[in-house]
Design goal:
The structure is a homotetramer.
Chain A (H helix, E strand, L loop, with lengths): L2 H12 L2 E3 L4 H4 L11 E3 L1 H14 L10 E4 L15 E7 L4 E7 L3 E4 L4 E7 L2 E6 L3 E4 L5 E5 L5 E7 L1 H7 L4 E3 L16 H6 L4 E3 L16 H16 L10 E6 L13 E7 L9 E2 L3 E8 L1 E5 L2 E5 L4 E4 L5 E5 L11 E7 L1 H6 L5 E2 L1
Antiparallel strand pairs in A: 2-20, 3-4, 4-11, 5-10, 5-12, 6-9, 6-11, 7-8, 7-10, 14-15, 15-22, 16-23, 17-20, 17-22, 18-19, 18-21
Chain lengths: 356, 356, 356, 356
């Protein structure tokens, strides 16, 4: 480098400037080159650590939640499963409560096993059971309480990294203790009573949340919707996403869009012996195996997976899944995958792309 | 009138002109003065005439449908229940078929009693049973067939008058006979298998209809949604429209809006002994009593009503309903009202208003 | 007809019922069959009658406006240029005022010749000059005053028939006299100062009108936009609608959509010797020749037209225009057409169609 | 820490997990705590360095652009003016060309002084002159060429950091050399001829860009719009944002929204001696002083500023500006500020907030 050029670069440094020409490749690659890696977390590793945390770490103010986040190995030790998404296992001991708070981060819970916790959103106690998906848009008050004599684990998904990097997050503490009326353990939440009927909206209430007013998507409905698609395929009709691959999106009954402004949630079912087409898209996804077993490929990685295992698909990495082959064509032997992603961000900003 | 003015008016006539100053009161009133009258049609009059038509009038090409329209007494004998809406009773004899056609008029069927007919929309046979609401957006092929050994009646609602006065209607004949595959009598339509799960959308299909892809809103869901609202009221929570008055709107799961671009459909349930607040709005509504008994007021008219009775509420006329008082507070003794209206037209064009 | 059938039809009549099978052809034709006729009104007939009305008929409360409406010859003498649209010539004598009122009917003014009247909308005096288009959404207070010593004529377009048939209209009288401050005669309206700069929106104000906040679209801009399109065509670039045919739509700067919820307005310019492709669409249009001469065809009618002539194109009738051929290719020798239509109604309700 | 807890934390590390309870304060603060600092870059420092780069660094493939980015002192030396935005000074020598490329990053140019460069977007040469704002949505081909015998500088704004952190960016090289036809130097771009007329949209073309089709917002219009607001204030009418403070937003004529999906651009004018109310909002802004002088405060920093100076307002930091006081009330002595921000991101995702 000539002395003149060196002098110029020193001038840049002094004045807090950086030339584009030394940076363009990293900043403006020909396609997304994710800083995150594909990675798998096994349920058999996650759950015992959560149980141990249940014994050793109190829940409550300060900690607020006993949540343990998946940290992508390529993101510098930060609790980010991808550059935009947070995924954690949360654990509540018998009789414990997580105190009330609210935040702008959009969140959901998904239950891979167990039951007995009620999440109390806007004073409405919502039961959590295996297969239930419980979205909760930003700035709603919420607490949890375990009403049983056994501990319970579930997963949380949030847009914490996205709001952290874009700096849009607010947080408030609520009441230390929820009221007795909120400690009840109804079979159905009030939100489900109002919004859980297909194609029917109550005329008398207008929720103000930026996300879905339906606070629980019950497993029985998700399971039926997936079975119905495979049944239609068997009868020769349209409905599945591709052969042997049923899929539903959780949607907001108020506008038919995604349940949360920044998070999309879906459920995929592969019939026994089926395989999905490799597909990539802008933005990242996290999957949890809900049932069955098979193998999944993310970029150049391939893993055998079974119930509870979680993995991340970074931006623009190919993903495909394959359910275990079997001797019968029973659906129950297939592979059930819960998925969430940051796709609504990119769709809202005209940045979404996908390819096969 | 001076000779000069007479001469001027003759000039207007000769040149196909009309002065505003002689017309303004009628054209631009201080509020809507409907050309239609409030009117009641009793089911006990409608059904026997429909039955008689079933015996005497063949269905098929030419007639296309054995539908008998409610003609508002103030609209000059035209088959318009209001200036924008069509309401008719349709009747199909055992084994009969209504041939396939399609039209831009948006339509629905509602079943106040009986079962046994399948409406075949886009080759998908959709069962019709008491309480079911079956919307069908314009330009979808559709036929009906009665698969049983008894006749069946139901009501049709369409925007025929609106499209007639605005001149936007298209119509096409389809196949004379539907295929054997379409003559099956499944318990659930394919549309219900794909779109009938609360908050869940299939990822693999994207319907192209301008209205809802869900072709039947089953009574069991409507009934539960209304009961749940009254149950929430009993428990002290929000949900009902006003005390003792539960109400749901039928919505399009794709966008959360009305089921059809020009027609809104709702179901109202008044707890026994309840009364709704008089309310008026721009545009007209038609009601059918689904169950129970009580009285309704439209403008200055008041009628006692019971199952099957239909009536029209013209634009800007006050409407209220009152269910029969009873000795118990059982819901079953209340008043169930199905309603449809032209409100989406006015909301889309920033012309909607309502008042109490 | 058999006695039984006669009895059935008598039953229908008694109970205010009409069978579909006797009516379907007229109500549900294979494509729109307009009740309106194509018709031409010559400016040389319109203007003298308006002038004579100026001499004989006072303006003011009661009459409200000295407006003379075009009455389609096939619409029964009603002042409807088409089933949905109103078009009128309005005339104001020197020093006269039209008192303030407001109504839900959406309206505009267009000036084919002259100047000197200010329309005062929401207390903002808006000048009117040849070529200016002045939209004004429903429910804005408005008055007019002629500030000069000569009379002035212009045309009004409104959705009076649409609101009349759908029964959505409200009307209120305002002040008898506007204030001195509103009698000023500024070169530019305040609305133009705020909203008349291309691609620039004021941050400090948010208008509440359902239509455009820009109350005048000045001729100089319309003229330039059309000339620019023809210039681009000459240079070999895209821009015109079809060869020799430039066209712009007047749009709402707040959302880029039509200026009024129910009315679309456009300006078309045919280069000398050009001809537009016959085209039909759902809904009706009214044209006024702004400049030049040529011939126009509507359905099976063809007329020679020149400045000020007005004509109506009913729903689904073919329309084409042809400018006079000339020896030079100067634009000034072409044909300039102002057009308004009811297209936004059909687009909002998924009923729009067009064809060539 | 107990040995058991230490063991638990080692387990977390081994399995790529991080507990929320040690991180929550930083990740979920009570309000945004920006990682970026308020910072000022003086034009008197920026321009000489850009000129020196013009002499020493070639432009062309590899470097692509001679752009020098503002690097926020608290963002680790990365070329990010804020966590989401890129701001740079770009410099082109006489006769130089920047080769054609395209990228998903949304971009604009703004000219604080000079002229002579044409940016060629989609083969349309667009002149750049003092005060012009030139937005260009992602994935449009673009090049630049300096058609004069003097160098020219301008600023670029892009969403490079946002797309870098969310991993949504694509990039493609185009032609090495643009054609002779694109090297012309028209007074107005074709985009301006089509889209630069207030409230008028061409009917014959439908652009496919996700941003505005208007590629240059000319200074003469921006200047008039701001002057008109101050003139209205003087006359006692609404229009300014607050006393002495005029402001316009650059908008997309197709939908009235922001010019780019991720970037908002505005122009603010403070009358001589005026001061704006301190205001904070979610997301970051960058300002450039276009004319006049005064002082600005960002958080706890206050700087005197004059033409060309640039500064950044991090998320949720208070900002206010004050123009120099003077003896006359001439507008020319005030303070003119160009601003861009990432607000559309937060508005699209229901995360926007602001406060005073």
């Amino acid at each position: 480098m000539s002395p003149e050029l060196e002098e110029l670069y020193r001038g840049f440094e002094r004045e807090m400037l950086v030339p584009l020409w030394t940076e363009i490749g990293g900043l403006m690659p020909s396609h997304p080159q994710s800083k995150a890696s594909p990675h798998l977390w096994r349920w058999s590793d996650l759950l015992p650590l959560a149980q141990r945390a249940g014994e050793l770490v109190p829940v409550g103010r300060g900690g607020e939640r006993r949540a343990i986040a998946l940290a992508n190995p390529s993101l510098g030790g930060r609790p980010f499963v991808s550059p935009t998404l947070w995924a954690a296992i949360q654990y509540l001991m018998p009789g414990e409560n997580a105190p009330e708070h609210r935040h702008t981060q959009h969140a959901f819970r998904f239950v891979v096993e167990g039951e007995g916790v009620w999440t109390v959103v806007g004073r409405d106690p919502v039961p959590m059971r295996r297969g239930d998906f419980l979205p909760q848009a930003g700035w709603n008050w919420h607490a949890h309480h375990n009403a049983t004599d056994h501990p319970m684990a579930w997963i949380d998904g949030l847009d914490i990294p996205f709001q952290y990097v874009t700096e849009s997050q607010f947080f408030e503490f609520g009441r230390e203790e929820i009221s007795d009326a909120e400690r009840t353990t109804p079979e159905r939440s009030r939100s489900q009573m109002l919004w859980g009927h297909p194609g029917l909206s109550p005329i008398g209430t207008r929720p103000e949340t930026p996300g879905t007013p339906l606070l629980s998507y019950r497993w029985e409905h998700t399971d039926s919707a997936l079975s119905d698609q495979l049944e239609l395929e068997r009868l020769g009709f349209d409905g599945v996403m591709e052969p042997g691959h049923a899929a539903v999106r959780f949607t907001n009954p108020i506008n038919g869009g995604d349940v949360l402004p920044t998070i999309r949630a879906e459920f995929h079912r592969l019939r026994r012996g089926s395989e999905s087409t490799p597909r990539r898209e802008v933005g990242s996804s996290v999957y949890q195996v809900f049932d069955g077993s098979g193998s999944v490929s993310v970029g150049t990685e391939t893993w055998s997976v079974s119930r509870g295992d979680m993995f991340v698909v970074p931006s623009w990495k190919d993903f495909s899944a394959k359910s275990e082959a079997g001797t019968t064509d029973s659906d129950s032997g297939g592979l059930d995958l819960f998925r969430f992603s940051d796709a609504p961000i990119f769709e809202a900003l005209a940045l979404h792309r996908s390819g096969t």
